[in-house]
Write a structure and sequence with these properties.
Layout lengths: L1 H5 L6 H14 L3 H14 L6 H14 L8 H14 L6 H14 L3 H14 L6 H14 L3 H14 L3 H14 L3
Helix pairs in contact: 2-3, 3-4, 4-5, 4-6, 5-6, 6-7, 6-8, 7-8, 8-9, 8-10, 9-10
Amino acid sequence: VLAAQLDPIAYPISDKIREEAAGFVEREDYVSAAVVLAGFAKAFPGDPYAAGAAHSAARYFGENLDAAPDMRPQALAAYEYAIDTFPTHPYAEETLYALGKLYGVMGDHARAEFTLTEFLALYPGSPYEARGHLALGYAYLGMSDFDGVVREATWVLDRTVDEDLRADADRKSVVEGRV
């Protein structure tokens, strides 16, 4: 690592990191790939591959939280780092949505509300828009803001054809007895 920091041309660490991460992904060890990529992005933020590594690390952590729920703090740190350091990367949209959703899953409903509201304002028409409204509804539910729950569930019911999202929104609104 020190050699790469002193002479990145003579020791192209990004190539080695890509190979190592690809090996973990090939073995379906996504958490290890995330650890390697996140470490690289933090150690070499100026490297042209750092932004992609940071957002990929966040994605690998996030997509594997069901299998490794103890990795939530690492996933949260990876999402926050990717968004804070590389906010214009092509994956920033997905990363910001996932960060808001993760805040909600971790019980930080106020941060989930803030982040998801920011996501929806920054990315209208996003492929994640309906999911963002649904996650925002869950944040409102966690804060006992039932009007917010109904508003977000209604948005999903009125504007998406995805049956799974509609069923989830319908369940949420029926549970609250508001729609």
